[in-house]
Amino acid sequence: MLSRVVFSAAATAAPSLKNVALLGPGVLQATRIFHTGQPRLAPLPPLPEYGGKVRLGLIPEEFFQFLYPKTGVTGPYMLGTGLILYFLSKEIYVITPETISSISVIGLIVYAIKKYGASFAEFVDKLNEEKIAQLEESKQASIKQIQDAIDLEKSQQTLAQKRHYLFDVQRNNIAMALEVTYRERLHRVYKEVKNRLDYHISVQNVMHRKEQEHMINWVEKQVVQSISAQQEKETIAKCIADLKLLAKKAQAQPIM
Amino acid sequence: MASVVPVKEKKLMDVKLGELPSWILMRDFTPSGIVGAFQRGYYRYYNKYINVKKGSIAGLNMVLAAYVIFSYCFSYKELKHERRRKYH
After folding, report:
1. Does residue B87 form part of some domain?
2. CA distances for B62 relative to A57, A227, A234, B42, angstroms
3. CB contact under 8 A, A94 and B80
4. Residue-number span of the structural domain to which B59 is assigned
5. How confident is the model at residue A162 (pLDDT cuts 50, 70, 90)?
6. Which of A1, A8, A51 sits opposite B59 (nearest CB)?
7. Which partner for B50 in A67, A165, B17, B59 could form a disulfide, CB atoms 3.0-4.6 Å apart?
8. pTM for the full model?
9. Does any domain span residue B11?
């Protein structure tokens, strides 16, 4: 079957080859046919699960299907029986001592296979599966590793895109620092100005107070000076007379 | 030969009985062709019955049966003398 594909490819390539033969050997290199078909075995197709079906462990199923349209289901078995009887009767198969030994050996083998075949197959399948699982695991590990590397690379790439956040933060910090120093200086200016103004106010207050005290003292001194000796005696006598009157009044009232 | 496809390109199952001699003669009998034929046959059998996940004993069985029959054919000449009856 593969040879037919090769032949058909050669047939399609034949014209170019014929032309090349006319041109000469030097040009042959230029028109050589390279692999232009699709790579058919990549990725590798998975192994089939079961082999071709075989009946009686000897005869492939295709033979039975081949005879089915003409002879039905029992055809191949009849053919087999007929052939065996024919070989025996015509002694194309000769019965020798070897026949008996081979019958017993084959019987034993068939019995052993029928009895232990399934468990042996399971055991071997398990071995196979372990091997495959190991390989699969290593493949997955390497795939995961490469995937992690890819993710890391991608995240680093996106980080490069996010540099502007860093610069924004720095800009914000600087703006805030500027603001803070501006307000600090404003506050200082305010304090200084207030200080100066307070100074003037306190100076005014002090002057005011001093003038008031001075005036009061001066007025008191004048008044005390103005009270002459004679006026003092008169005032004292009047006060004593008032007091006596008041005492009489006060004595009179509780008795009532 | 009133066939649509030239005889060269057919598979064996599609070749009609009358075309069989010409088909056989058409085959590639160079050494590399013969080796290629053996290789193809081997890989066809191998990939069908042995190179599978759950192969059965039939893959090996058929090879042993073929060997038994083949060796019986070659030793028939000596076995002929051990026949029980001369005339069948």
Report:
1. no
2. 8, 161, 167, 13
3. yes
4. 7-82
5. confident
6. A51
7. B59
8. 0.54
9. yes
